[in-house]
Amino acid sequence: MADTRAHGSTAVATDGGTAAGPALLEVQDLTSSYGAVRALDGVSLRADTGRITAVLGANGAGKTTLLRTVSGLVRSSSGRVVLDGEDITSASVESMVGRGMAHVPEGRGVIAELTVHENLRVGALFRGKVEKSEYDRIYDLFPRIAERRDQPAHVLSGGERQMLVIGRALLAQPRILLLDEPSLGLAPRIVAQIFGLLRRLVDSEGLSVLLVEQNARSALSVADVGVVLNLGRVVVTDSARTLMADEDLRHAYLGF
Ligand code: ATP
């Protein structure tokens, strides 16, 4: 097993693929509750520019709550969220796009009656004028979306919807993209396509991706770093390669 396993709830490895120097996003000892249910219990992690950080764990581990707390949808009861050196723990959810954070929640929410192109335009609402070239870039990234640009979003397959919501988030020009369960219900071929594209974006544009997944095998195959949560606590943080090789850990927490 990886020797960076947490002792207590807040350990973050300093080796095993986590970068040195200031993080783009730093989550420090974060605790969040829904009434009496403590969903996050002292979680610490970091996400760096040019890296995919996968947050893994079973149902109810706290993955969605982590993203919702980072993006301001859920208020933490203690701990801090720091983006590029600035404490954003109490920042409004509306301010996050302007700060360079885009959150793609689970569920692929598109506006069914609007066309694909109109849905993309929603992603640019918080910005001033958006050049045609920026839409073209999204269509280049997702040719399947380009083919359907004038069709209503309700005709899209699950994979196409996932591409559309990622494309819409990219139009906000984020420095960090929070992605919640993008693989849910998709065929392995489509998951590989979407994850491959994320990898290209991260490598070529220095994007940071904080990827929440129950599909640990696929997530670890594309991620640089993995953070395993269980019952709201960090079990281990290490390089994706090390986590993938850790059979005990995989069986205990990752379901493969
Ligand atoms: P899943 O993949 O099933 O969404 P998860 O790892 O994302 O799991 P969370 O959804 O963050 O986990 O849930 C963490 C804990 O918080 C669970 O015990 C869950 O039941 C609880 N919880 C989540 N949302 C709420 C809510 N709105 N009200 C009350 N409890 C909640």
UniProtKB/TrEMBL annotation:
<keyword id="KW-0067">ATP-binding</keyword>
<feature type="domain" description="ABC transporter">
    <location>
        <begin position="25"/>
        <end position="256"/>
    </location>
</feature>
<dbReference type="Pfam" id="PF00005">
    <property type="entry name" value="ABC_tran"/>
</dbReference>
<keyword id="KW-0813">Transport</keyword>
<dbReference type="InterPro" id="IPR003439">
    <property type="entry name" value="ABC_transporter-like_ATP-bd"/>
</dbReference>
<protein>
    <submittedName>
        <fullName>ABC transporter ATP-binding protein</fullName>
    </submittedName>
</protein>
<dbReference type="InterPro" id="IPR052156">
    <property type="entry name" value="BCAA_Transport_ATP-bd_LivF"/>
</dbReference>
<keyword id="KW-0547">Nucleotide-binding</keyword>
<keyword id="KW-0029">Amino-acid transport</keyword>
<comment type="similarity">
    <text>Belongs to the ABC transporter superfamily.</text>
</comment>
<dbReference type="GO" id="GO:0015807">
    <property type="term" value="P:L-amino acid transport"/>
</dbReference>
<dbReference type="InterPro" id="IPR017871">
    <property type="entry name" value="ABC_transporter-like_CS"/>
</dbReference>
<dbReference type="GO" id="GO:0016887">
    <property type="term" value="F:ATP hydrolysis activity"/>
</dbReference>
<dbReference type="InterPro" id="IPR027417">
    <property type="entry name" value="P-loop_NTPase"/>
</dbReference>
<dbReference type="InterPro" id="IPR003593">
    <property type="entry name" value="AAA+_ATPase"/>
</dbReference>
<dbReference type="GO" id="GO:0015658">
    <property type="term" value="F:branched-chain amino acid transmembrane transporter activity"/>
</dbReference>
<dbReference type="GO" id="GO:0005524">
    <property type="term" value="F:ATP binding"/>
</dbReference>
